[in-house]
Amino acid sequence: MGCCFLLVDGDNSVMLDTGLFGEMFLIRRKMQQLGLAPESVKTILLTHGHLDHAGNLARLKRWTGAKVLAHANEQRHVDGTYPYQGSNRWCGRLEAVGRKLFNYQSAKIDEYLSDGQQLPLWGGLRVIHLPGHTLGHCGFYSEKFNLLFCGDMMAGYFFSTHKSWNILNSAPEQIDASAEKIRQLKPRWILPCHMDRVDGELSRRRFAKLYGFADWEALSS
User: Fold this and answer.
1) Residue 218: its pLDDT value, please?
2) How much is the pTM?
3) Rounded CA gap, 36 and 86, in Å?
4) What is the spatial distance between Cα 33 and Cα 19, in angstroms, rounded to a whole number?
5) Are 47 and 131 in contact (CB under 8 A)?
6) Could you give phi then psi for residue 12, rounded to 5 degrees?
């Protein structure tokens, strides 16, 4: 139900998010299948610091020696010290239980990211700050592939496409503005971290419908 991404680029490969339960085994197996040594992953990018995205961060950082890059506002989420307010307190309570169940360990963000920053990773990735789900929530855009990794801006499944539940959003009033930012970017493909299959075109259509936008790719074809 949740996805993290291995962006393969030889000895400069990237992990985008780290998943929670079971992903460490899958990541190790996939890297072995691809002939990648642990030190081939030089960078770990976080869309945000919620437990299902940073659950294996400390383990992956130790195993690979990679640097962790994320928005400065996400360190408190990674540490489990973010001051959740209102209904968002339920997110904090759920994460507190999860940290105990999965023996969670925190990790330091080595470099803070800013909106529009160009990263020399995977042929070039641009940081797209998309606050709302968390204050430091970010997407990563590949101009080379015209592909946006949009984090938790949506969840897309065959039975339901929906925005993140409000109890999980730290600043829900900012989400629509972040969606408009994606509409203006007009990526050909979108990949969220919660989806039923890896299909960037399908996810783009789902995203456009969810936020009440016309499908820009369909209009231009």
Assistant:
1) 81
2) 0.96
3) 44
4) 19
5) no
6) -130, 40
